[in-house]
Amino acid sequence: MQRSKRDILIELLVIQTQAGDERAAADLFELWNPSVLSFVNQRILNSQDANDVAQESWLAIMKGLNRLRDAATFPAWSLQIVHHKHTDFIRRQIRERENLKGRHQQLQAEQTTSTAAQHQSQMADVGRAVEQEIGQLPLEDRRLLTLFYHQAMSIEEVSKITGRSVAAVKSKLFQLRQKIKTNIERNFHE
User: Fold this and answer.
1) Tens of pLDDT along 83-116?
2) Residue 57, H or E segment
3) Coil, helix or strand for 72?
4) pLDDT tens for residues 26-61?
5) Nearest-CA neighbor of 141 among 185, 167, 179?
6) How far apart are CA 151 and CA 123, in angstroms?
7) How many CB atoms lie within 10 A of CB 169?
């Protein structure tokens, strides 16, 4: 297999970089970086993320370059590092999405719990207010409400027990509900 001038130049630059030649390292970067970027850009669509992965790859390449025994294998060796950095990037993206999803679900659960607790507290406040309003009614009105709401009697049954007509029971229940509602709304808006 015949090697190209480019392959020979890369091998020479690798050897010189391993020997500590900073200019050779800069030339190696300039010559090989388009291959690294091409490899990364084929896999990562966001250019900022692709550049970040390429930069991480170069840091790893330069850090491990002295462990490379055969300078001729640099292209395959370096692209293997780029592949690993790309894989690390994908794993980070997955973890971040899972963390965001988990955090979103946690916030939703907290919001639901908070909303339910607020609703429960408000309902308890309304319940106490209704009881207080009923407690201030005349005995006959309280009795009418108790028969209909607490003992779940029909209008006809309440009518027989109280001696009022069905229409009078309906009318009185409506008036009492409106009075209680008006008083509670007034108290909650104060």
Assistant:
1) 999 999 999 988 888 888 878 787 777 777 777 7
2) helix 47-64
3) helix
4) 999 999 999 999 999 998 888 899 999 999 999 999
5) 179
6) 21
7) 22
Q: Which two tokens stand for residue 82?
A: 């780029």
**pLDDT number for residue 127:** 75
- Residue whose structure tokens are 């005349």: 138
Structure-block tokens of residue 28: 């190696």
> Which pLDDT band, with edges at 50, 70 and 90, does 74 fall under?
very high
User: Taking the mean position of all CA atoms in its chain, how far away is CA 142?
Assistant: 51
Task: Specify the DSSP class assigned to residue 20.
Answer: T
Taking the C-alpha atoms of residue 161 and residue 33, their distance in angstroms, rounded to an integer, is 96
Q: Which two tokens stand for residue 179?
A: 């009075």
Q: How far apart are CA 57 and CA 74, in angstroms?
A: 13
Tokens coding 52: 């970040």
For tokens 């025994």, name the residue: 69
Q: Which long-range contacts (CB under 8 A, 24 or more apart) does 30-38 make?
A: 31/6, 32/74, 32/75, 32/78, 33/58, 35/75, 35/79, 36/78, 36/79, 36/82
- All structural domains of the chain: 5-99 (1.10.1740.10), 137-189 (1.10.10)
Cα radius of gyration rounded to whole Å, the chain: 40
